Amino acid sequence: MTPHGQLRPLHPAADDGTGNRSRRTTAAGPDPGPVRSITRGEAEDPATGPGSTGPAARKRQHPPARANRVFVVGSDGRPLMPCTVRRARRLIDAGRVRRRDYRPFTIHLKDRCATDGRTAVQPVEVRCAPGRRRTGIAVVATLDEEDRVLYQEEIEHRTDITRKLVERKTHRRRRRGTKWFRKQRFDNRRRPAGWLPPSIQSVVANQEHRIERLAGRSGANTITIQTAKFDTHRILYPKVEGTGYQRGPLYRRHLREYIAAQWQHRCAYCGKGDWEDATRFNLDHVEPRTAGGPDNVRNLVWSCQPCNERKGERPVHEFLRENPERLARVLRQHPVPLAAAGQHAAICQTLVRKVQNTGREVLETTGADTSHVRSEAGIDKSHPNDAACCGSNNAIRNVGAPAKLKAIGHGRRKQIKSLPIGPYLAWRHEKPTVRRATPCPGHARRPNHVHGIRSGDLVEIRTRNGLKKGSAQVEASTRRVYVRTADGKASTSKATHIRKIAPRNGYRKSD
What we know:
- The chain is an alpha+beta fold.
- The protein has twelve helices and 27 strands.
């Protein structure tokens, strides 16, 4: 959700700042005329459109009172202090803006700069509260011993990278066996220093990109990042202290002996004792290893071989569906997931190192300090609010509704087109009449852009009813661009009828 969605034009008869009326005035009052929205471009109903004050307009849902500020760039390319939405709307109506950028919404002025002697720029800093699934970022200015929040946003990271990597691996193995015989390379490659899994690398890349974007638009040179350290041993055993950190549950004990003693030498699934007959007993994983179950002692139970074979790779909820009491006992010692704690620590360390490499000043703070500041200010807990409070020693003001972004990626890593029944295999049955655009058969043959526009870009299209704005959907086969506008869907195949306003940047508006 970008800030430009909160812009509304002034009243048709409002003053543009130079003493002139933006609309003609009659004896009966100002002539409303068709109101053209800045954000959508189509004509609005004067009774209910933006700028109207009638009863019907009061029923419309207005943006929050404390909306995000609009970033401002001077005529020399240097950032100025962000302004309010109302101020930005007046500057646009007065014709003092030469260009507009999006995500976040930024206006470029024609007649103001930081070196003209009449423009003051206060210090601004960017604060970040990183997370594994969601990240909050805030732009804060310290004025009159108060931290005033100028901009907040919340990023929802991708969760489909692991699935897409498995799909890509399947396609590559299929091609190795059907296209030509090629021996599989021996897996002896070393990972470079600082390597992260692709799912975690995506999170760090999103955070680094947004921090750089907001720091460049606001002119901030100080970045405050909230880091955290987790005591994983205390998470598993809350009463641990002293030498308990060095002497875990397996101190001077064998694993099988410890698990058997935990279950009184009885099967966890049927209750049979290991002394009753010659039945063999094994260690069974409550959460199967095929489903990502760990080898932690809290995920192991004492099980007889018949129950172990019957359970197999099935979830324990399905296996003990008819015995809820025994299921509750097995789940009572279910392991606490610690993957999030390790991933969060790796994310924070990598993010701090990458931001330091950009030459900006990086300050680190802890989650305990952020929690104290947030409770003192009486602010609700959320990722954007944590970002606004981290590293603060003053009162927090102007906390509003954050912009919400969802990372969707660029869609450029997948090279093989897929059909509902499998990968595209037409190249095996027909000989092409022209030279292929790509050297390897089976890869995408057509570009994923038309007239320099890709799917997801914010564009402006010329229709019979005038200019309209919307999100583009590219169809490379017909060289057409389809645009979802506010009142329907428009399409064109001419470059002169469409213009790109802002790229997708790997993000989209969150629902």
